[in-house]
């Protein structure tokens, strides 16, 4: 924790604090959509005596959330980071990911640890100074933001390390608390819940500006935190009482967002596409909405009714990652496991459905499937755009004829189009927002929490939540119901988890879900596979394929994968343990 302590020491003078804060604020204003101008100067005696200065200080918090990539590791939700699907079982790339492979080691340093505690320090600094401010109503929003982000940051620590030190004061460098032991994860979660409940009381009913927090964002995060820890306690510790307490909080918080009716799933009937299934493309275009003409029907970000809280970007901002080229087509190796997760249009998995067309032809497995498969992946021969082509204001057949054609004879044979911008834009200047929290997650949180409370769920609760997500662009797919599960020999928990995996794919949830469900030990050691070669179109048409095949004739991308119990948590870095031996180490990493 040396870096944290030295940082706190540097900030002990009020003048240094505000100079630093204003630099951060100015930088964040250059790279965000928040239309707030920094004041010319703030003398030391004016720092905390105006409500607007509290808001100015809180603006820096908005740069700390998950994003498309780049920045600090815990923020990398799409490119490789602690929450990224690249560290899961569903995707891979040309090089081995040691975390996915189960071979990561104790690091000398870990930027997550120091950055999270530095940022917690700033939230505490605002809250400490807010206590003495004479007009509490005038600073309720920045106070609510500080509580929300303090919970967000402590929750990150729990997801990464488990037990963590709770800090609720901007402590001096010689404060013994900084050199103490970690708090048990349950205490940290309780602190997160308390902070989010305070945020609910303080934040506005609706955000005054796009990209700002509101009450629903606090309820939504509360549902995420409580669901995560509730299922962790259920499946790791068999603590039914604690699990019930937390899952009830998760369900009620998600229900509050639903009942408030401020958000809805994004859907536009005009986004119908003459693709292989002639299906609606609302799911795909939701993720790449910009405030320029970048889709067939001219929708801008304001049309998105689903993002409760997002990491905002502007057309003129340079992003930390060239997201289109990082995710489009054959860069992201989607696995056969992920492809097989998509249901058929009759609501049945591929191994049960008579609608499944098999793997014989290059695109046959895409027929009659969940429309999100087509929205997320490219099939062989499909026309698509990337951001290198001409500037488009129309998406006509003539345009399509001059676009790219997907050739799946590379990497896994499964290719991605999620996060692929379609209008010409300079690399690193894509300007779609990243959904830190979207309404679909809240609906799925509700369904899972409701089920795990009693290992049963009513059809009414399914219709209120999961079925809305499933049928957004699958209007003819049967609803998930208890009778449907029973009559088709399905498992309700499996189907609820399948829905979550498919809907939130490539948004930074899968590996954390496997950890909290305690299924990583089963899922992660499995070989990562590509398309089936033997007996299919690929056998004759992908003659240059050099990877080995398994017994079923499928490409083996990575084998020899392992998962030990210690991998459920990351190890604490060596430098922090040397500075504070009281931190200890996570089980299995000693």
- Which residues sit in consecutive blocks of at least 5 with pLDDT less than 50? 4-45
Number of strands: 10
Basic shape: globular
What does the average pLDDT come to? 90
The gyration radius over C-alpha positions equals 24 Å
What brief labels describe this structure?
two-stranded antiparallel sheet; globular; 10 strands; 590 residues; mainly alpha; 23 helices
What does this structure look like?
This protein has 23 helices and 10 strands. The protein has helices spanning 2-10, 14-30, 51-58, 98-101, 111-130, 140-161, 185-202, 215-235, 240-260, 282-286, 323-327, 336-341, 371-376, 397-401, 439-454, 459-464, 466-470, 482-487, 492-503, 510-517, 520-523, 537-541, 574-579; strands at residues 91-92, 307-311, 333-334, 377-378, 383-384, 404-405, 415-416, 434-438, 528-532, 554-558. The strands form 5 sheets. It has a two-stranded antiparallel ribbon with strand order 1-3. It has a two-stranded antiparallel ribbon with strand order 2-8. The longest helix has 22 residues, at 140-161. The relative contact order is 0.13. Residues 4-45 have low confidence and may be disordered.
């Amino acid at each position: 924790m040396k870096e944290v302590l030295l940082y706190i020491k540097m900030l002990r003078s009020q003048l240094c604090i505000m100079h630093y804060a204003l630099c951060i604020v100015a930088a964040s204003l250059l790279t965000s959509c928040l239309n707030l101008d920094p004041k010319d100067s703030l003398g030391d005696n004016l720092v905390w005596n105006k409500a607007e200065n509290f808001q100015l200080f809180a603006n820096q918090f908005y740069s700390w959330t998950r994003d498309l990539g780049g920045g600090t590791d815990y923020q990398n939700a799409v490119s490789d980071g602690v929450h990224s699907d690249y560290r899961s079982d569903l995707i891979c790339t040309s090089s081995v990911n040691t975390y996915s492979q189960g071979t990561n080691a104790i690091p000398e340093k870990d930027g997550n640890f120091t950055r999270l505690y530095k940022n917690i320090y700033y939230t505490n600094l605002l809250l400490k100074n807010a206590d003495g401010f004479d007009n509490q109503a005038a600073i309720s929003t920045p106070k609510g933001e500080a509580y929300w982000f303090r919970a967000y940051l402590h929750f990150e620590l729990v997801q990464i390390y488990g037990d963590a030190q709770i800090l609720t004061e901007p402590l001096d460098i010689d404060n013994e608390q900084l050199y103490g032991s970690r708090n048990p994860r349950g205490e940290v979660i309780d602190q997160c819940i308390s902070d989010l409940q305070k945020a609910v009381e303080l934040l506005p009913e609706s955000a005054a500006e796009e990209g700002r927090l509101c009450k629903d964002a606090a309820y939504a995060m509360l549902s995420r935190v409580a669901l995560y820890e509730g299922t962790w306690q259920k499946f790791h510790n068999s603590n039914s009482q604690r699990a019930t307490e937390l899952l009830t909080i998760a369900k009620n918080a998600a229900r509050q967002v639903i009942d408030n009716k401020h958000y809805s799933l994004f859907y536009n009937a005009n986004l119908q596409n003459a693709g292989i299934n002639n299906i609606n493309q609302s799911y795909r275009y939701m993720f790449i909405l910009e405030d320029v003409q970048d889709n067939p029907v001219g929708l801008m970000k304001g049309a998105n009714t689903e993002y409760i809280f997002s990491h905002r970007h502007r057309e003129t901002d340079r992003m930390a990652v060239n997201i289109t080229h990082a995710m489009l087509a054959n860069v992201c190796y989607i696995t056969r496991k992920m492809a097989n997760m998509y249901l058929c249009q009759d609501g049945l998995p591929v191994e049960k459905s008579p609608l499944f067309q098999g793997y014989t032809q290059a695109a046959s497995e895409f027929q009659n499937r969940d429309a999100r498969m087509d929205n997320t992946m490219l099939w062989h021969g499909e026309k698509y755009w990337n951001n290198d082509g001409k500037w488009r204001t129309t998406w006509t057949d003539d345009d399509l004829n001059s676009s790219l054609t997907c050739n799946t004879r590379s990497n896994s044979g499964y290719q991605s189009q999620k996060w692929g911008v379609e209008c010409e834009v300079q690399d690193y200047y894509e300007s779609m927002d990243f959904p830190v929290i979207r309404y679909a997650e809240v609906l799925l949180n509700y369904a899972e929490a409701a089920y795990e409370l009693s290992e049963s769920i009513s059809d009414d609760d399914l219709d209120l939540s999961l079925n809305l997500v499933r049928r957004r662009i699958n209007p003819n797919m049967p609803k998930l119901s208890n009778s449907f599960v029973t009559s088709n020999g399905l498992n309700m928990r499996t189907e609820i988890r399948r829905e979550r995996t498919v809907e939130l794919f490539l948004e930074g949830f899968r590996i954390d879900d496997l950890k909290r469900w305690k299924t990583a030990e089963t899922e992660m050691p499995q070989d990562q596979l590509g398309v089936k070669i033997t007996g299919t179109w690929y056998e004759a048409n992908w003659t240059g394929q050099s990877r080995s095949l398994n017994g079923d004739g499928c490409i083996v991308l990575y084998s020899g994968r392992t998962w030990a119990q210690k991998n459920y948590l990351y190890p604490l870095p060596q430098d922090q343990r040397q500075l504070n031996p009281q931190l200890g180490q996570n089980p299995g990493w000693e």
